[in-house]
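Kindly inspect this one:
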Amino acid sequence: MAKEKPGLNVAFVGHVDHGKSTTIGRLMFDSGNLPAQELEKLKKMAQEKGKVGFEFAYVMDKFKEERERGVTIDLSYQKVITNKREVTIIDAPGHKDFVKNMITGASQADAAFLVVAAKEGVQPQTKEHLWLLKTMGVGDICILVNKMDTVEYKEDAFNKVKEGLGTLLKTAGYKPEEMTFIAASGFMGDNVFNKSDKMAWYKGPTVYEQLDLFKDPDKATDLPMRMPLQDVYDITGIGTVPVGKIISGVMKIGQKVVVLPGRSGTGVNGEVRSIEAHHEQLQEAEAGDNVGINIRGVGKKDVARGDVVCDVTKPAKIVDEFTAQVVVINHPTVIAKGYTPVFHVHTAQVPCQFIELIEVARGGQKIENPDFLKTGDVAKVKIKPIGNLVLETNSDNPHMARFAIRDAGATVGAGVCIELKAK
């Protein structure tokens, strides 16, 4: 059995109609990940619907409704195998979908292409998406200057977009001089999989080559061990068995652990006695494994869902208050200081209060100390948990830093913890 190639999740984000779906479809087809007869079918469909040239976009826009409207609604995944990796491509249609899917964890993007059309350049949505990538902790970004065919493949048009984006990138905390800008046409296929013969001046990689040039994502196994509890069972003959998924690090038999916050609110210490996955006893388990464990010194009454098993030498923190970058996905009115929704962090659900609105990026503008937040805002806020919450900063452990904000059964927003004060 050949060893699997390492995976990388890459998101394509950008203004509506700047050619994300078309570029991905082209990439799939030219790289041999989309059979010709499938493309023929899509081509025929595009013609019948009077949407000639939309066939590549149809690869991603699988849903009938999207095809009628020519817009991406849902998130779709595609696999592209490169020389070095197995890449999962996330086509994120817009603001909300991107955030929703970033917090589900399964689709956490390791890297992203920000797609900007050569003719239109920077649009308000381009700014929003950049703040969003920053907020959700995506550090590795490549700028894809698309639709070069619409500006006759001219270098000065490409440079103009590059300059226009420079300031914006700096404001969002990226370093344009260290970033890759690709000149491409998804529709015509220039510099997507195949090198273009129309831009002799362009010396950079193709989109396909860039997939192998993104940095390797940090392996979750290199981080301290964290296992948020999903449930706690009492099993005859074994005793108390907490179950959950190890989200970072490695767990071994005999390892000394602390379960936080525990019933006591200050943690409960123990030692890993057994680890089981699929009715099989393991000596060790690592990030990504769903396991049931028995911990010496930890009983059914000591721990519950939402607690986190940590390595005792490097425990997570129980927080007093924290600063977070949040995105308001959907709120019926406005959010002001004092708002107390429920935060869903790993497996925990804890009410938290917004105690300070520090700044907001709205329509690409930064506003200090806003009076309120509304749908679509990307903001920096200070939050105080009402109860015990175990959390880490995005720089310490991104797997323990993301959260969803829910109120009255609906997802209001999402975010990541960037600073915290421990209890």
About this structure: Residues 317-422 form a domain with the Elongation Factor Tu (Ef-tu); domain 3 fold (CATH 2.40.30.10). The longest strand covers residues 348-362.
